[in-house]
Amino acid sequence: MKNPVLDEKQLIAQEKLNNPSFMRTIWREIKHDKMALGSLILLIIILSTAYLSPLFIDNAALTRVNFLNTWKPPSATNWLGTDDGGRDVFGQLMLGARNSFTIGIAVTVLAGLIGLTYGLISGFYGGAIDNVMMRILEFLMVLPTLMFIIVFVTIVPNYNVFTFILIMSAFYWFGKARLIRSRALQERELDYINASKTLGTPSWKIMFFEMFPNLSSLVIVNMTLSLAGNIGIETGLTFLGFGLPAGTPSLGTLISFARNPDIVQNKWWVWLPAALLILVMMLCINYVGQAVKRASDARQRLA
Amino acid sequence: MLKFILRRTLLMIPQLILLSLIIFMLAKAMPGDAVTGAFMGNPDATPEQIEKIREKFGLNDPWYQQYGRWIGKAVKGDFGQSYTHQQPVTTLIAGRVENTVLLSLFTAIMIYLMAIPLGIIAGRWTDTWADKMIVTYNYFAFATPLFVFALLMLFLFSFVLGWFPIGGTVDIRIETGTWDYVVSRAKHLFLPVMSAALIGTYATIQYLRNDIIDQKIKDYVKTARAKGVPEGKVYTRHILRNSLLPIAAFLGYEITGLIGGSIFIESIFSYQGLGQLFLQSINLRDFTVVTALVMIFGTATIVGTLLSDIILSIVDPRIRIE
What we know:
The complex is a heterodimer.
Chain A: H1 8-18, H2 22-32, H3 34-52, H4 59-63, H5 89-125, H6 127-141, H7 145-155, H8 161-171, H9 174-187, H10 191-199, H11 203-240, H12 251-255, H13 261-266, H14 268-296
Helix pairs in contact in A: 2-14, 3-5, 3-14, 5-6, 5-8, 5-9, 5-11, 5-14, 6-9, 7-8, 9-11, 10-11, 11-14
Chain B: H1 2-29, H2 34-38, H3 47-56, H4 63-75, E1 81-82, E2 87-88, H5 89-124, H6 129-143, H7 146-160, H8 179-200, H9 202-216, H10 219-226, H11 231-249, H12 251-268, H13 274-283, H14 287-315
Antiparallel strand pairs in B: 1-2
Helix pairs in contact in B: 1-14, 5-6, 5-8, 5-9, 5-12, 6-9, 7-8, 7-12, 9-11, 10-11, 11-14, 12-13, 12-14, 13-14
């Protein structure tokens, strides 16, 4: 006869099976929403083409200048024509998408980490520490962010991709910090935190290993939605000429050709595909992001 | 009430001081100063003479003395000399400020003109086809980056269809003061304003729609209905009074968004405003102008936030925390 009383480990395993993980909930939500599923598939197609394109396109040929072949309209050899240096626009588009997405991810993760740490500390301690940290944050939030980034990009010595990521991350964590802090303030009143404090667990351990897992769905939602925003800001800055350095083309580099009226009108194949690709990527990421957001809140779920 | 406004205004002072300090430090980190600007490319000035002038202007003093002088002048509206334009920065900015104010003002007006009716329709007739269309439009407005949208608008309406001028502030062949001048100004303004406004409606529509949906089921609305108030009046007299008030308060926050946007919009439509001046100056390394512009835009943002906070506290007393 089987033991009627399940032991504790089995009970926990049973409980875990009944209680789907956040990732599983997200997947169910996306599957239920046809548009979100379509967006996700389209996004995967775009990204895998971009990231796998080095297998098919010779990167050295992409950067080689060929003056006999400049400003060629789209043809069978150059699907999207060529630019001012006779380089293939389609190849540059793929390279740009790759760079823009990678940097978008890097900025999102880095800014997320800064915001998370700041918000957790402020919310966990509360009181005077919270007060001071929030006054500082309030001040940072009223700075004209875009202008400051442009100034920093111009005056930073040895400017490269990494400094750009650092500068952008330094200015895009404010909102996240405030969001995390307001949730952490609620969380710190709960019994499990008090119990941990009583047992003498160090504060950093409570913050990052006990509080953070309970806020993780909030963080995931916020990061998905800000990923799209960050890609938009990066390409925008590159478009203005204050983003990625010349050696690292992004989608914004291709669009910045459009600052010349002749190119806007007569050589549309250089900038228009990049502009549309950004648009499509933004819409897809945001649509998936909305589904993730719904999954995190049981009242909003469709599935 | 008065106490809150006073306290909130006082809070602005340390913010302004901190902002000016940061900008001063940045200005020090920028290559070149007032003297390199004024004597750039002057072969008669020997390094010794320049050093003497630096001493005379106090550029070798400790930083806090320099900061004190700089901020003292800046408060009086003196931001020094621009060396690429060879004229006082204040004159340079004064010539452009009108254009940016016009652009932002009309953008704000357009945003409210479009967003308020759309928000009300979406909130009142939830889940109808109109609501679904508005929600879809709003989703596009949220997701589309401003510079991509503005560029596509410029391409479509100015280049392909040729309805609007391809850039600039006004047709230079037209004399100032005539009716044609006003028409030309309006034509040059229309596309930049619409590009910014069509995308800028997101927050207002979203807020209004959600708030109306929340208010609809409240007790005071049920009471009004039970008393036999016509459906139209339930909205105009009861719900909208509550929902629209915070919208008025967001005006100040809107300024922050418009400032960031003006850099993109003015650059794409070659509109002669402060955002374009900022980009030109930073490309020419004309840092006296850059410093002055960051200071002005930063102050505008701080004052805008202050305005919003005050209006919001009048509208909603719960916000007036001690």
